[in-house]
Amino acid sequence: MKLRTLTLGLLSASALAFAAHAESITIATVNNGDMVRMQKLTDDFTKANPDIQLNWVTLEENVLRERVTTDIATKGGQYDVMTIGTYEVPIWAKQSWLLPLDKLGDDYDVKDIIPAIAGGLSVDGKLYAAPFYGESSFVMYRKDLMEKAGLKMPDAPTWDFIKQAADKMTDRANGVNGVCLRGKAGWGENMAFLTAMSNSFGARWFDENWKPQFDQPEWKKTLQFYVDLMKADGPEGASSNGFNENLALFQQGKCGMWIDATVAASFVSDPKASQVADKVGYALAPDNGLGKRGNWLWAWSLAVPAGTQKADAAQKFVSWATSKHYLELVASKEGWANVPPGTRSSLYANPEYQKAAPFAKMTLDSINAADPTHPTVKPVPYVGVQFVAIPEFQGLGTTVGQLFSAALAGQSSVDDALKQAQDAATATMTEGGYIK
Amino acid sequence: MARAVTTQHKTIATAAAWVVALLIFFPILYTIITSFKSEQEAIQGFNLIPSGTFESYSEVQQQSGYFKFFFNSVLLSVGSTILALIVAIPAAWSMAFSPTKRTKDILMWMLSTKMMPAVAVLFPIYLIFRDSGLLDSRIGLTVMLMLINLPIVVWMLYTYFREIPGEILEAARMDGASLWNEIIYVLTPMAVPGIASTMLLNIILAWNEAFWTIRLTTTNAAPLTAFISSFSSPQGLFWAKLSAASTLAIAPILIMGWFSQKQLVRGLTFGAVK
To answer: Is B230–A59 a contact, with Cβ atoms under 8 angstroms apart?
Structure first.
C-alpha cells in the first residue's frame, strides 16, 4: 500500500514537473472553417513540439476584434498569438504593439507569400503578421442567365458592362435580381464594398493632407451609380443585406451577379449548399478604365503581441500554421479544395490545386490586382484598399456606412448622404488632429 | 349565461396566454430544433422538422469540451450569488428596518449603476484586473458578477424585508436577541422564500451574463457564454453547431427554472399587490 502511494506520488510529481516544463501559448482566433480546421490539425504541431501546449480562444469576428484590441492596448498579455486582419496590422505595428516576425525558420520561404498580401502585412519592410488565409473580391455570375441575356462576361468587365448585364438579367417576376451587392451598414460590410468600388471611380477617402473627399465628383459618381444600379436591378430590402444574406440569395438562384469576397466561390460552387453550383462563372471586379479595380484585399493573419512572454514558442506556432507544410497537411487530410487560399504563390502554381479549385486563377488575379500601399487613382496618405488604416476608421466607416445605407433605402438623397458623410469625416479628422 | 361567458373568457385568456408563451419560447424551441439538423439543413431556410442527427452535439463536444465550461458556469453563478447574498442581506436589512432620510436615494444610486452601459467601464475594469492578476481567474470573475448583480439583489431583498412586520424583530430584541441573532434566527427564516427566489434569479442572471464573462476570460475561467460564442460566426457557417452549443448551455438553467418556476414567479411579483 505504501509502495503504491509512493509510486503514485512520484508519478504525479513528475507529471507536474512535465506540465511546468511545457510552455503553453494562448491563441485568439476567429471562427471560420479554415481556423476550425487548423485547431483539429494541431496534433501535427504538438507532436513536433511536445514542449509547447496550445490553448485556443475562438471568438466571433467583432468580439475577437474588441477582445484583442483591449488586450493589446492595455498590454494585458492574455494572448501569445492573435488572429488579426490587414486593417489592424499597420496600425498596431506602428504603435510597437506587435513583434516583427523574424524567427519563422530557414525553410519558411517568406518570398513565397503573395506580394500584395505581404505588402499589406509589412511596415518599413518588416513582416508583422503571417497570412493564414487571404481574399480579394470578384464577380460571381450565373453563366446560364448571362447566356440567356445574350451577353458574354469578359474576364475584366467594366462597370458599364455590369449595369448593362444587370438590366438584362433582372427578371423580377421570376425572382431574379440582376445584381446583389452589400447594403448593410458597417465599415466591414457595405463600406468594404463601396470603398473598394470608389477606388475604381477615382475617388478617395482623404487627399494627401487628410482632407475628406466626399464633396468631390468622384464620390458622387460612385454612390449615384451604386444606388441607381441597386434600385433598378437589386433585391428588395438590399440596405440590410450583408455577406450572409447575399450568399443565401445567390445560392437560391435569386442573383444574376454578386460582387463579393473570393472566399464565397467555394460556397456558391458547393453542390450540397448551392442550387446553382454548376452554373457559376467568375470575373475580376469591374473598373472604369482608370487603372484601379473595385476589388478589396483582406488577410486573416497571425501576429505575436509585444506583451507576450513566450515569443519564441509563439513564432514557432505562427511559422507552422502559415507554412507550405501546413497547406500540404490540409491537402493530405481534407483535399486540396479545403486548403486555406490566398497566401502563397506556390499554391497557385500547383496543378492539383488548380484542378480542385476552378476559381483559383481568378482569385490570384484578383489578389494581385489590389495594391494596399497605392489603393487609389489619386495619391493618398493612407494604407488599405477597402479601409483606411487609421484607428478612427472603424467608427467613421460605420457612420458613413449608415448614411450610405440610408441613401440606398431611399431615406435620404445621394447628395444629402454625401454631405453628411463629409461633415462626419471632417469632424472626426479634426478631432483626431489630422486637420485643423 | 354568466357562467358561459366566464368559461369563454377563460378559454380565450388561456389560448392567448399559450400563444404569447409560444411566441416567447419559439426562438429557444427553434434553436433546439436546429441543433438536431445537419449544417446543410440548418442553412436551407425555415424548417420545423429536423433529420434528428446528433452530429452537431458530438462535434461541439469534440471541438471544445463542454464540461470545463459548464463547471466554470456553475462555480461562477453559484459563487457570485452566495457572495452577493452575504453582502446584500445585511444591507437590505438596514435599509428596510432602520431607514434614514437618504435610504431611497442610496437605493436609486445603486440601481443607477445598472443603467450605465458595461462597455463604458471596460478599460478601467480591465486595467484593474490586469494589475491585480485577476484576468482569466475564477475569483476575479466571481467578484465581478457579484458586483454587477448586487443592486438587483439588494433591491429584491429590500422589497421582501419590507413585507416583514418590524414588530416581530422588535419582539426578538425584547427577548434579548443580538443583531446577528436577529438577522440569522428571526429575519432569515421568515424571508426564506424571498431569499430563495432572489438566489434563483441571480443565478440565472449570472449564468447568462455574456459581456464580462467573455471579455475578462481566455481559457481557465471561461464559462458557457464563451463556449457559445466560440461557435458563432458572421458567415453563418456553423448554425447547427451554434444551436447545439446554445442548447447545451441553456439546458441546465432551463431545467432549473422549470422546477423552480413557482418560487420565481412569487419572487418577481412579491409586493406587487398588497
So the answer is: yes
Query: Region A341-346: what's the mean pLDDT?
Result: 93
Contact A70 B238 (CB under 8 A): no
* Residues from chain A contacting residue B124 (CB–CB below 8 Å): none
Measured between alpha carbons, how far is residue B189 from residues B89, B97, B150, B164, B194 in Å? 12, 16, 21, 11, 10
Structural domains present in chain A = 18-128+298-356 (3.40.190.10), 136-296+377-431 (3.40.190.10)
Whether residue B80 sits in one domain with residue B7: no
Q: Are B50 and B34 in contact (CB under 8 A)?
A: yes
Q: What is the mean pLDDT of residues A294-321?
A: 94
Compute the distance between CA of residue A99 and CA of residue B226 in angstroms, rounded to an integer.
28
Spell out which residues of chain A touch residue B232, defining contact as CB-CB under 8 Å. 31, 60, 63
Mean of pLDDT over chain A:
91
pLDDT of A179 strictly over 60: yes
Q: Which residue of A has its CA nearest to B39?
A: A273
pLDDT value of position B235: 59
Sign of CA dihedral A255, A257, A261, A262: positive
Shared domain for B141 and B247, answered yes or no, is: yes
> Taking CB atoms and an 8 Å limit, are B235 and A244 in contact across chains?
yes
